[in-house]
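#structure-requests
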Amino acid sequence: MQAEFRAPRRRTRVMEEYEAPLPVSRSPEERSDLRAQLINQHVLVCHPDHIQKIHNQGYFGKGILSRARPDHSISDQWEQHEGLLLPVISQSRLDLDPDYDPDPSSNQDSDSNPDSISDPDSDSDPGPDPGALGPGPRFVLVVPDSDVCGGVRQVRRTPVSLTEYLQLSLEEAFFLVYSLGCLSVYLHQEPLSVIQLWRMFRSLRPDFVSSFAAYQHCRSRGWVPKVGGGAKYGVDFMLYRKGPPFYHASYSVVVERVADAFRGSALHPFSWRSLAALSRITSNVSKELMLCYIIYPADLSEAELDSPVCLSRLKVQEVIVSRWVSSRERAEQDDI
């Protein structure tokens, strides 16, 4: 018996359009070869086009400089100056905050090396070159704090270049690689095979097999699981319909590993008190608590777990946990 899913709550203000549920194309000729890097045990997507496609079509990952959407920008003021659209910054802020970066979408190139950055006050600074701007501007329009004595606006070179990357969870990265086949993960400029990636993720996260099985199950049912969003609620991930910009999270999901007879060591050893507290927190934020049991067959060996083929032998069972409210129960009995 499967859990009964309820209709999600739609957000009152939706500022964007729904592009696609997944970053894949029906036509084999239009298959996109997306690329990510495994850096310090984190999967990062660096190319701006790949970032937009992966995030906008399925809402995978989060920006490393942002709360969710990878659109970090310190300066919201832009102005046209001599044919160039440049971020605007005051003179005082530029002087007091040398690490200010008005547009972190600039790619890291020779300008990201401190030894190669020219001094903004130096006469040898050649000024902006429209052909050298690349994906993002590396120059800023400095506005004087006072117009006394005929203050002049100057185009200065950006002091530091910060880049907004898209960070994928291990479950999201492996889903894009294994389930969709649209992403390649590189380590030291070499692409990792599916087996290599699976074994590496298992070594990084002992519960990766159960967590990915639950993630893949929820994705296959049309939900958008956000792994990092459940940390503040004490759960493994949150479930969204279509994506966070369109609906509030409907379910807080806790992943549990069990054997055939629902025996074995739990990933989350709940007591009655801790489970009641988690259920109360979930109810207070207008969500429902779901226990997602990953059922392992008794004859599944450790050698089989060393390959993603083992996923075909795992079963998933959802259980919705509801908090019993005595006053509500009495009111329902009175109505009857």
